[in-house]
Amino acid sequence: MTTGRITSVVRPAREQWTRWRSTAACLGVCLLSSVGLLWLGDRSQQTPLGQALDQAGMDVVVGDRAATRQLVAVLGNVSLGSVALAVVLLTGTAAIRRRYVAAAAAAALVLGANVTTQVLKAWSERPDFGNLTVASYPSGHATVVVSLVLAALLVVPGQARTTVSLVGSAAITVTATAMLVASWHRPADIVGAVLVSMAWGTAVLVVWSVLRGGMSGVDPGRPHRIFATTGVVLAVAGLLAVGVRPGGGWSGFLDAGVVLAGIALVTALAVTTFAQLSAPMGVGEDQPRLRSWRAPRPGPP
To answer: Taking the complete model, does pTM exceed 0.70, yes or no?
Structure first.
Protein backbone atom coordinates (compact mmCIF):
# COMPACT_ATOMS: atom_id res chain seq x y z
CA MET A 1 0.00 0.00 0.00
CA THR A 2 2.82 2.37 0.98
CA THR A 3 4.80 1.48 -2.14
CA GLY A 4 1.80 2.17 -4.32
CA ARG A 5 1.26 5.57 -2.76
CA ILE A 6 4.93 6.48 -3.20
CA THR A 7 4.79 5.41 -6.83
CA SER A 8 1.64 7.46 -7.41
CA VAL A 9 3.47 10.54 -6.12
CA VAL A 10 6.90 9.95 -7.67
CA ARG A 11 5.72 9.09 -11.18
CA PRO A 12 3.77 12.35 -11.79
CA ALA A 13 6.64 14.35 -10.30
CA ARG A 14 9.09 12.58 -12.61
CA GLU A 15 6.87 13.23 -15.60
CA GLN A 16 6.59 16.90 -14.71
CA TRP A 17 10.36 17.19 -14.33
CA THR A 18 10.83 15.53 -17.71
CA ARG A 19 8.36 17.99 -19.21
CA TRP A 20 10.06 21.04 -17.69
CA ARG A 21 13.71 20.00 -17.80
CA SER A 22 14.36 21.59 -21.18
CA THR A 23 12.73 24.78 -19.92
CA ALA A 24 14.99 24.79 -16.87
CA ALA A 25 18.01 24.37 -19.13
CA CYS A 26 16.89 27.32 -21.27
CA LEU A 27 16.36 29.45 -18.17
CA GLY A 28 19.80 28.50 -16.87
CA VAL A 29 21.50 29.44 -20.15
CA CYS A 30 19.54 32.70 -20.25
CA LEU A 31 20.68 33.67 -16.76
CA LEU A 32 24.29 32.65 -17.39
CA SER A 33 24.35 34.61 -20.65
CA SER A 34 22.88 37.69 -18.98
CA VAL A 35 25.32 37.59 -16.07
CA GLY A 36 28.21 36.88 -18.43
CA LEU A 37 27.20 39.83 -20.61
CA LEU A 38 27.27 42.25 -17.68
CA TRP A 39 30.44 40.79 -16.14
CA LEU A 40 32.38 40.83 -19.40
CA GLY A 41 31.24 44.36 -20.12
CA ASP A 42 32.48 45.52 -16.73
CA ARG A 43 35.84 43.72 -16.90
CA SER A 44 36.65 44.53 -20.55
CA GLN A 45 35.43 48.14 -20.58
CA GLN A 46 35.84 49.50 -17.06
CA THR A 47 39.29 48.22 -16.04
CA PRO A 48 42.75 49.13 -17.40
CA LEU A 49 43.79 45.47 -17.67
CA GLY A 50 40.60 44.47 -19.43
CA GLN A 51 40.91 47.28 -21.96
CA ALA A 52 44.57 46.48 -22.59
CA LEU A 53 43.95 42.76 -23.16
CA ASP A 54 40.97 43.48 -25.39
CA GLN A 55 42.95 45.98 -27.46
CA ALA A 56 45.84 43.55 -27.81
CA GLY A 57 43.43 40.84 -28.98
CA MET A 58 42.25 43.10 -31.79
CA ASP A 59 45.69 44.42 -32.77
CA VAL A 60 47.26 41.00 -33.20
CA VAL A 61 44.83 39.93 -35.97
CA VAL A 62 45.41 41.89 -39.17
CA GLY A 63 45.14 41.39 -42.91
CA ASP A 64 46.93 42.66 -45.97
CA ARG A 65 45.39 45.51 -47.94
CA ALA A 66 43.40 43.30 -50.30
CA ALA A 67 42.05 41.10 -47.51
CA THR A 68 41.07 44.11 -45.43
CA ARG A 69 39.22 45.64 -48.38
CA GLN A 70 37.30 42.40 -49.00
CA LEU A 71 36.34 41.97 -45.35
CA VAL A 72 35.20 45.58 -44.97
CA ALA A 73 32.98 44.99 -48.01
CA VAL A 74 31.49 41.99 -46.19
CA LEU A 75 30.69 44.20 -43.19
CA GLY A 76 29.10 46.74 -45.51
CA ASN A 77 26.47 44.17 -46.43
CA VAL A 78 25.21 44.11 -42.83
CA SER A 79 22.78 47.00 -43.17
CA LEU A 80 19.31 47.81 -41.89
CA GLY A 81 17.83 46.82 -45.23
CA SER A 82 19.58 43.46 -45.29
CA VAL A 83 18.46 42.74 -41.73
CA ALA A 84 14.86 43.57 -42.59
CA LEU A 85 15.02 41.33 -45.65
CA ALA A 86 16.48 38.47 -43.60
CA VAL A 87 13.75 38.79 -40.97
CA VAL A 88 11.06 38.77 -43.67
CA LEU A 89 12.57 35.63 -45.21
CA LEU A 90 12.79 33.87 -41.84
CA THR A 91 9.26 34.73 -40.76
CA GLY A 92 8.00 33.89 -44.25
CA THR A 93 9.64 30.47 -44.01
CA ALA A 94 7.88 29.83 -40.72
CA ALA A 95 4.56 31.09 -42.07
CA ILE A 96 4.77 28.76 -45.06
CA ARG A 97 5.30 25.89 -42.65
CA ARG A 98 2.33 27.21 -40.61
CA ARG A 99 4.55 27.73 -37.60
CA TYR A 100 3.31 31.19 -36.73
CA VAL A 101 4.56 31.11 -33.15
CA ALA A 102 8.07 30.30 -34.38
CA ALA A 103 7.85 33.26 -36.78
CA ALA A 104 6.91 35.60 -33.93
CA ALA A 105 9.64 34.13 -31.73
CA ALA A 106 12.28 34.63 -34.42
CA ALA A 107 11.23 38.26 -34.93
CA ALA A 108 11.25 38.89 -31.17
CA LEU A 109 14.71 37.35 -30.85
CA VAL A 110 16.25 39.51 -33.59
CA LEU A 111 14.51 42.70 -32.48
CA GLY A 112 15.16 42.20 -28.78
CA ALA A 113 18.84 41.32 -29.16
CA ASN A 114 19.61 44.24 -31.47
CA VAL A 115 17.68 46.81 -29.46
CA THR A 116 19.40 45.62 -26.28
CA THR A 117 22.81 45.95 -27.92
CA GLN A 118 22.12 49.52 -29.02
CA VAL A 119 20.77 50.45 -25.57
CA LEU A 120 23.83 48.99 -23.85
CA LYS A 121 26.16 50.93 -26.13
CA ALA A 122 24.17 54.15 -25.67
CA TRP A 123 24.11 53.91 -21.88
CA SER A 124 27.64 52.63 -21.27
CA GLU A 125 30.68 54.81 -20.68
CA ARG A 126 34.23 53.73 -21.48
CA PRO A 127 36.87 55.32 -19.24
CA ASP A 128 40.00 56.70 -20.88
CA PHE A 129 42.80 54.22 -20.19
CA GLY A 130 44.62 54.98 -23.42
CA ASN A 131 42.49 52.74 -25.68
CA LEU A 132 39.88 55.16 -27.04
CA THR A 133 36.68 56.02 -25.20
CA VAL A 134 34.12 55.21 -27.91
CA ALA A 135 31.56 52.74 -26.51
CA SER A 136 31.53 49.62 -28.67
CA TYR A 137 30.27 46.85 -26.37
CA PRO A 138 28.52 44.72 -27.59
CA SER A 139 29.12 44.74 -31.34
CA GLY A 140 26.06 45.71 -33.35
CA HIS A 141 27.25 43.94 -36.52
CA ALA A 142 27.96 40.72 -34.63
CA THR A 143 24.61 40.89 -32.85
CA VAL A 144 22.83 41.13 -36.20
CA VAL A 145 24.54 38.04 -37.60
CA VAL A 146 24.34 35.92 -34.44
CA SER A 147 20.68 36.75 -33.79
CA LEU A 148 19.75 35.92 -37.40
CA VAL A 149 21.53 32.55 -37.17
CA LEU A 150 19.70 31.68 -33.94
CA ALA A 151 16.41 32.85 -35.42
CA ALA A 152 16.98 30.62 -38.44
CA LEU A 153 17.30 27.63 -36.11
CA LEU A 154 13.77 28.39 -34.87
CA VAL A 155 12.08 28.39 -38.25
CA VAL A 156 13.88 26.17 -40.77
CA PRO A 157 12.70 22.58 -41.37
CA GLY A 158 14.33 19.89 -39.25
CA GLN A 159 16.45 18.52 -42.08
CA ALA A 160 18.04 21.95 -42.64
CA ARG A 161 19.02 22.72 -39.05
CA THR A 162 22.48 21.16 -39.29
CA THR A 163 23.08 23.18 -42.46
CA VAL A 164 22.21 26.33 -40.51
CA SER A 165 24.72 25.27 -37.85
CA LEU A 166 27.41 24.92 -40.53
CA VAL A 167 26.71 28.06 -42.54
CA GLY A 168 25.76 30.15 -39.51
CA SER A 169 28.92 29.32 -37.57
CA ALA A 170 31.03 30.18 -40.61
CA ALA A 171 29.18 33.48 -41.11
CA ILE A 172 29.65 34.50 -37.47
CA THR A 173 33.36 33.65 -37.59
CA VAL A 174 33.93 35.59 -40.81
CA THR A 175 32.03 38.62 -39.49
CA ALA A 176 33.90 38.56 -36.19
CA THR A 177 37.30 38.30 -37.87
CA ALA A 178 36.40 41.04 -40.35
CA MET A 179 35.66 43.42 -37.48
CA LEU A 180 38.99 42.60 -35.83
CA VAL A 181 40.92 43.12 -39.06
CA ALA A 182 39.09 46.37 -39.79
CA SER A 183 39.66 47.52 -36.17
CA TRP A 184 35.93 48.11 -35.78
CA HIS A 185 35.53 45.96 -32.69
CA ARG A 186 37.52 44.07 -30.10
CA PRO A 187 37.10 40.40 -29.07
CA ALA A 188 34.99 41.23 -26.01
CA ASP A 189 32.54 43.16 -28.20
CA ILE A 190 32.00 40.04 -30.31
CA VAL A 191 31.59 37.70 -27.36
CA GLY A 192 29.15 40.20 -25.84
CA ALA A 193 27.07 40.04 -29.02
CA VAL A 194 26.93 36.25 -28.74
CA LEU A 195 25.86 36.49 -25.11
CA VAL A 196 23.09 39.02 -25.71
CA SER A 197 21.74 36.93 -28.60
CA MET A 198 21.83 33.75 -26.51
CA ALA A 199 20.07 35.51 -23.64
CA TRP A 200 17.24 36.64 -25.89
CA GLY A 201 17.04 33.35 -27.75
CA THR A 202 16.68 31.26 -24.62
CA ALA A 203 14.33 33.83 -23.03
CA VAL A 204 12.00 33.45 -26.02
CA LEU A 205 12.08 29.67 -25.56
CA VAL A 206 11.29 29.97 -21.84
CA VAL A 207 8.28 32.21 -22.49
CA TRP A 208 7.02 29.87 -25.21
CA SER A 209 7.40 26.85 -22.94
CA VAL A 210 5.62 28.49 -19.99
CA LEU A 211 2.70 29.54 -22.16
CA ARG A 212 2.23 26.05 -23.56
CA GLY A 213 2.85 24.11 -20.35
CA GLY A 214 6.42 22.89 -20.79
CA MET A 215 8.40 21.18 -23.50
CA SER A 216 10.30 17.95 -23.71
CA GLY A 217 13.17 16.64 -25.78
CA VAL A 218 16.29 18.11 -27.35
CA ASP A 219 17.96 17.77 -30.72
CA PRO A 220 20.90 15.33 -30.74
CA GLY A 221 24.00 17.43 -30.12
CA ARG A 222 26.63 15.48 -32.04
CA PRO A 223 25.52 16.46 -35.58
CA HIS A 224 25.39 20.14 -34.62
CA ARG A 225 28.80 19.98 -32.94
CA ILE A 226 30.30 18.42 -36.06
CA PHE A 227 28.68 20.88 -38.46
CA ALA A 228 29.32 23.98 -36.31
CA THR A 229 32.96 23.02 -35.79
CA THR A 230 33.35 22.34 -39.50
CA GLY A 231 31.87 25.74 -40.26
CA VAL A 232 34.30 27.67 -38.08
CA VAL A 233 37.30 25.64 -39.29
CA LEU A 234 36.39 26.27 -42.94
CA ALA A 235 35.87 29.96 -42.18
CA VAL A 236 39.26 30.33 -40.48
CA ALA A 237 40.98 28.43 -43.29
CA GLY A 238 39.33 30.70 -45.85
CA LEU A 239 40.34 33.81 -43.92
CA LEU A 240 43.95 32.68 -43.79
CA ALA A 241 43.81 31.96 -47.52
CA VAL A 242 42.66 35.49 -48.39
CA GLY A 243 45.39 37.14 -46.37
CA VAL A 244 44.41 37.40 -42.69
CA ARG A 245 47.66 37.14 -40.75
CA PRO A 246 49.05 37.83 -37.26
CA GLY A 247 50.12 41.40 -36.69
CA GLY A 248 53.68 40.43 -35.77
CA GLY A 249 54.28 37.80 -38.44
CA TRP A 250 55.24 34.36 -37.18
CA SER A 251 56.18 35.85 -33.81
CA GLY A 252 52.53 36.77 -33.28
CA PHE A 253 51.03 33.67 -34.83
CA LEU A 254 50.28 31.98 -31.51
CA ASP A 255 48.59 35.08 -30.07
CA ALA A 256 46.44 35.54 -33.16
CA GLY A 257 45.63 31.83 -33.14
CA VAL A 258 44.43 32.04 -29.55
CA VAL A 259 42.12 34.98 -30.38
CA LEU A 260 40.64 33.29 -33.45
CA ALA A 261 40.35 29.93 -31.68
CA GLY A 262 38.56 31.59 -28.77
CA ILE A 263 36.03 33.27 -31.04
CA ALA A 264 35.57 30.02 -32.98
CA LEU A 265 34.99 28.07 -29.76
CA VAL A 266 32.43 30.55 -28.43
CA THR A 267 30.66 30.53 -31.80
CA ALA A 268 30.49 26.75 -32.12
CA LEU A 269 29.40 26.31 -28.50
CA ALA A 270 26.63 28.92 -28.77
CA VAL A 271 25.25 27.61 -32.06
CA THR A 272 25.35 23.99 -30.90
CA THR A 273 23.72 24.75 -27.54
CA PHE A 274 20.92 26.79 -29.05
CA ALA A 275 20.34 24.25 -31.82
CA GLN A 276 19.74 21.58 -29.18
CA LEU A 277 17.55 23.68 -26.89
CA SER A 278 15.44 25.15 -29.69
CA ALA A 279 14.55 21.78 -31.23
CA PRO A 280 11.05 21.56 -29.66
CA MET A 281 10.10 24.79 -31.43
CA GLY A 282 12.21 24.26 -34.53
CA VAL A 283 11.18 20.74 -35.52
CA GLY A 284 8.20 20.10 -33.24
CA GLU A 285 7.94 17.71 -30.33
CA ASP A 286 6.14 15.17 -32.44
CA GLN A 287 9.14 14.66 -34.71
CA PRO A 288 11.25 11.51 -34.26
CA ARG A 289 14.51 13.48 -34.32
CA LEU A 290 13.87 14.76 -30.82
CA ARG A 291 15.67 12.87 -28.11
CA SER A 292 13.83 12.52 -24.82
CA TRP A 293 15.56 13.62 -21.64
CA ARG A 294 14.36 10.41 -20.02
CA ALA A 295 16.60 7.39 -20.49
CA PRO A 296 14.87 4.50 -22.32
CA ARG A 297 13.71 1.70 -20.11
CA PRO A 298 15.20 -1.70 -20.82
CA GLY A 299 12.83 -4.18 -22.46
CA PRO A 300 11.93 -7.59 -21.09
CA PRO A 301 14.73 -10.19 -21.23
So the answer is: yes
